[in-house]
Write a structure and sequence with these properties.
mainly beta; eight-stranded parallel β-sheet; binds 1-methylethyl 1-thio-beta-D-galactopyranoside
Length: 968
């Protein structure tokens, strides 16, 4: 054997190229506060840059940095942006696996490297004197920078700002900025977040002037004393100056403090005071929000009050531009959050674009600001070599936490620092925690990955099930160190919003409201990271030919990739509504509870409507006392107008809307609603009295024609029908599929193994007897003796047709059913739907809190929820009756009891087979499911499964539907 070439890994550290060194970088200025509203000059360098992609880091020498270099044949790229989303290379998705060998800090030779060139003209009026700095807000993952041919240095830390002093290098007129960006670097080992790998200069690059006497860095300390109703302001500045807050009549020296009556800042009432820091050379705008955050008596408090997080985890994502987000998108996200009662964001898993935090300050959200750090993929090797355990990485870790804290420290919305996500445990994290505590004692620390909570002020978990959260709330969790039992508890991730779901949110909320220590949580996550792609609708992992990938696990948000709210968001809005409206103790009353942290109910207008069968009969304003947070009242509802129709169902709908426009929603925006029943639904009478007749191989029964062999309907009232059949299958949801790393959660796999996706239908008898047609049959999977015996009894009164269904299980079923009901197909022309039941959105047994009882109307196409990976969706719950119409005639289906209604232009099998939205092609039928039962949704794609109350156990069942064709 020839001797092996000297392994590169054996290279001494210093001989490693910069991008493989653990050190954070060289040449940068120390971190400081970000994005200051300064009056100093700025030259934005966004826009079209020259671009060249190489497959490896060393494909080209650095001659391109020479100002004389001719880049005429290079491509153009938009900065900010990711080159893989602009036609160069391809994105790749992995959840935890690193898409390269675990050999820290080394990276593969295949290391896509993008050379970027930007020629700019220094404005003629660029101020002379002082310094100028070049500031990069975010480059993924490692950049080396030259200005006018002179190397400035290089850095890692993708979602963190980096600055270079360049004053001495600037030239009058033409300047050339050259940036070499490597996709992979030692920094990649610290950035194993669950998201697309997207290299590039994805946040702005600016040239800032720093005048002589500039305010280099400053720290606004604005606290609030809830016992005295007073705020205290002190601004530290590296350069002395004056601090002015005209509205408060304040004019202070830096370092000097003033205490005075002010309004506090909170997520519910984000009061900001405009101020200014003036140093000799610069005026910097300040936005002061007075608030004090503290852990006291085992609770996380803001301004002396317990905070209840109604939060979401937010990744930065846009379906076209990846993590390069424009202001409108950031703002749109926040408006959507606020309008859905969300009051908190965890910036998973890195500091967001700085403008996002400005918006949080303005609009009011509590923020857990997380450092750009995750080393999750080391779990695959038993955490061997985990950077947070090795000293050589500590400087990089400290650099990251410092860049996070220094940049964002002046945002009142940021109330907690998070060290990072999923890094295991190690001394590096402790070093970060020590640093953060020293630098900013005013904010508690969060990190979920260390159950000992040695470095944190909060006990945080992800995906703990309801049972465990209850135990924690009651102080029965004795598996941790005693000190942990004294800490406030939060779920930094819960309610995995992948595909249809999450289910079980309401049950969590009840726990948060029952146990003070349980201070809420953050749903995982805000948005589906599906990339717009004409081939697929939206692409997910594997769609770009990645060998190693995690499929659609990247699509787990409360909004679809194009930011269409999914039903999960509507559910969450209702579950976390800061006002609860429910039936009172005595009939005809409503109980109103104020669940706000800070606001009384004075800002809301309440109204009532009395509805019968979905029709509003009367309504008006409801006088509700301006309850303080935590208070409740029972309010009498106006009596029913006139005599209600006999047998009709009637109820009050009470709504709470904004009395005045807010910064985030117009006047009249609905915050909360509830319904109070007056008269209950009476069971519809079955149609009987007309006897069946035989004719041409068919059985005529009132308006129905049945096939004498199969017992299925051929038509009703002239509308052709196929079916109905008893069915149990649904296209598994992501939550039915469960988590691949927890085989016991993989319910759909077990359903398929049992054969529930390919049940055999047998007809044993079609008999006419006692004025009815009785169809007996059996539904069973191959290779099993489990079965459901079925009996469908058809009767008619001449106008209407009733089918009464009985299902009797045979054998020992050990799995819940996906669903249980009838499936039938109608002509495609029957594309309009009206119904009386829950709506307008989808619901399943443990979701759909946002759906209310009413009369609704939608086209079949609009009943679909376009989950990125097609799956069961679109059921309407509690349906009393539904009509399908082609405009001329309507087939009305009345259920006894209420049922789940679903209508689609594809069959369940087609929905099940589809992998992407583009696989769903409308066919010749409208497929209708009339379900007596649905299995709940849960959140087993990453979290607990369906709670016992929402499981669809196999048991005897009886239910009925009445069909009738109406004209017009
Ligand atoms: C958890 C991660 O923190 C988050 O980034 C995301 O991957 C989420 O899961 C699932 O989508 S870690 C998980 C193994 C509990």
């Amino acid at each position: 054997m020839s001797s092996a070439p000297r392994a590169k890994a054996a290279l001494p550290y210093a001989a490693l190229p910069y991008y493989e060194q653990t050190a954070p970088g060289t040449g940068c200025l120390p971190p400081r506060t970000g994005y200051a509203r300064t009056d100093a000059a700025r030259l934005p360098l966004s826009g079209g840059w020259r671009f060249r992609l190489a497959p490896r880091a060393d494909a080209h020498d650095d001659s391109f940095a020479d100002p004389a270099y001719d880049s005429g044949d290079w491509d153009r790229i938009e900065v900010p942006g990711h080159w893989v989303l602009q036609g160069h290379g391809a994105p790749a998705y992995t959840n935890t696996p690193y898409p390269f060998p675990l050999d820290p800090p080394r990276v593969p030779d295949e290391n896509p490297t993008g050379d970027h060139l930007r020629v700019f003209t220094l404005p003629a009026d660029w101020p002379a004197g002082g310094e100028s700095v070049l500031r990069f807000e975010g480059v993924d993952s490692c950049a080396r920078v030259w200005l006018n041919g002179v190397e400035l240095g290089e850095f890692k830390g993708s979602r963190l700002p980096h600055e270079f002093a360049v004053g001495g290098l600037l030239r009058t007129g033409r300047n050339v900025l050259a940036v070499r960006v490597h996709q992979w670097s030692a920094g990649s080992y610290l950035e194993d977040q669950d998201q697309w790998w997207l290299p590039g200069i994805f946040r702005e690059v600016n040239l800032w002037h720093r005048p002589d006497g500039t305010a280099a860095d400053h720290f606004v300390h604005a606290s609030w004393d809830h016992e005295r109703d007073e705020g205290t302001l002190r601004v530290e500045s590296t350069v002395p100056g004056r601090v002015r807050v005209p509205e408060l009549g304040l004019d202070l020296a830096t370092g000097e403090s003033a205490t005075l009556p002010v309004e506090p800042w909170s997520a519910e009432s984000p009061r900001l005071y405009a101020g200014e820091l003036a140093t000799g050379g610069e005026r910097v705008g300040l936005r002061v929000g007075f608030r004090t955050v503290a852990v006291e008596g085992g609770l996380l408090k803001a301004n002396g009050r317990r905070v209840l997080f109604r939060g979401v985890n937010r990744h930065e994502f846009h379906p076209e531009t990846g993590r390069a987000l424009d202001h409108e998108t950031m703002r749109a996200d926040l408006l959507l959050m606020k309008r859905h009662n969300i009051n908190a964001v965890r910036t998973s898993h890195y500091p967001p674009h700085p403008a996002f935090l400005d918006l949080c300050d303005e609009l009011g959200l509590w923020v857990i600001d997380e450092c750009d750090l995750e080393t999750h993929g080391f779990h695959a090797v038993g955490w061997r070599g985990n950077p947070v355990t090795e000293e050589r990485w500590t400087p990089a870790l400290l650099d990251r936490i410092a860049r996070t804290v220094e940049r964002d420290k002046n945002h009142p919305s940021v109330i907690v620092w998070s060290l990072g996500n999923e890094c295991g445990t190690g001394a590096g994290l402790s070093a970060m925690a020590d640093w953060a505590r020293r630098r900013d004692p005013g904010r508690p620390l969060h990190y979920e990955g260390d159950r000992s909570c040695a470095d944190t002020d909060l006990y945080s978990r992800m995906y703990a099930d309801h049972e465990e959260v209850g135990r924690i709330g009651r102080g029965e969790d004795r598996d941790g160190p005693p000190a942990r039992a004294e800490l406030p508890f939060l779920l930094c991730e819960y309610g995995h919003a992948m595909g249809n779901g999450p289910g079980g949110l309401a049950e969590y909320q009840r726990l948060f409201e029952t146990y003070p220590r349980c201070q809420g949580g953050f749903v995982w996550e805000w948005i589906d990271h599906g990339l717009a792609d004409p081939r697929f609708g939206f692409a997910y992992g594997g769609d770009f030919g990645e060998v190693l990938h995690d499929g659609n696990f990247v699509c787990d948000g409360l909004v679809l990739p194009d930011r269409t709210p999914s039903p999960g968001l509507d559910d969450y809005k209702r579950v976390i509504a800061p006002v609860r409206i429910e039936a009172g103790e005595s009939t005809g009353t409503v109980r109103i509870r104020n669940l706000h942290d800070v606001l009384d109910l004075g800002h809301l207008t309440f109204s009532w409507a009395y509805e019968a069968e979905g029709e509003e009969l009367s309504g008006g304003r409801l006088e509700v006392p301006p309850l303080e947070p935590g208070e409740q009242a029972e309010v009498k509802l106006p009596p029913a107008p006139g005599t209600p129709r006999p047998g009709g169902e009637s109820y009050w709908t009470v709504r709470a809307v904004l009395s005045e426009p807010a910064d985030w929603a117009p006047r009249g925006h609905e915050i909360a609603w509830g319904q109070v029943q007056d008269t209950a639904r009476r069971s519809p009478a079955p149609a009987t009295g007309t006897a069946p007749r035989s004719a041409d191989g068919g059985l005529l029964l009132g308006p129905g024609v049945l096939d004498a062999r199969t017992g299925e309907l051929v038509s009703v009232g002239g509308v052709p029908v196929r079916g109905p059949r008893v069915e149990v299958w649904r296209a598994p949801t992501d939550n039915d599929n469960g988590a691949p790393w927890l085989p016991e959660t993989e319910l759909a796999r077990r359903w398929r193994a049992l054969g529930l996706d390919r049940m055999r239908h047998r007809v044993d008898a079609v008999e006419s007897a006692d004025g009815a047609v009785v169809v007996r049959g059996r539904l069973a999977p191959d290779a099993s003796d489990l079965a459901l015996a079925t009996e469908l009894r058809w009767t008619s009164d001449g106008e209407r047709l009733t089918v009464a269904v009985r299902v009797t299980p045979e054998g020992e079923w050990r799995l819940p059913l996906p669903r249980l009901g009838l499936g039938l197909a109608l002509p495609r022309t029957m594309g309009g739907v009206r119904w009386f039941g829950a709506g307008p959105g989808e619901s399943y047994p443990d979701t759909g809190g946002g759906a209310r009882l009413g009369r609704w109307q939608r086209e079949v196409d609009a009943l679909q929820t376009r989950y990125v990976r097609p799956q069961e969706n679109g059921a309407r719950a509690g349906v009393r009756w539904a009509e399908l119409t082609d405009g001329d005639r309507a087939l009305r289906i009345t259920g006894d009891p209420e049922f789940w209604f679903t209508a689609r232009r594809w069959s369940t099998a087609e929905l099940d087979a589809a992998r992407h939205l583009t696989d769903l092609v409308p066919g010749d039928s409208v497929w209708v499911n009339l379900d007596h039962g649905q299995h709940g949704i849960g959140s087993a794609s990453c979290g607990p499964g369906v709670l016992p109350a929402h499981r669809l156990r196999v048991a005897r069942a009886r239910f009925a539907f009445t069909f009738e064709v109406l004209r017009g």
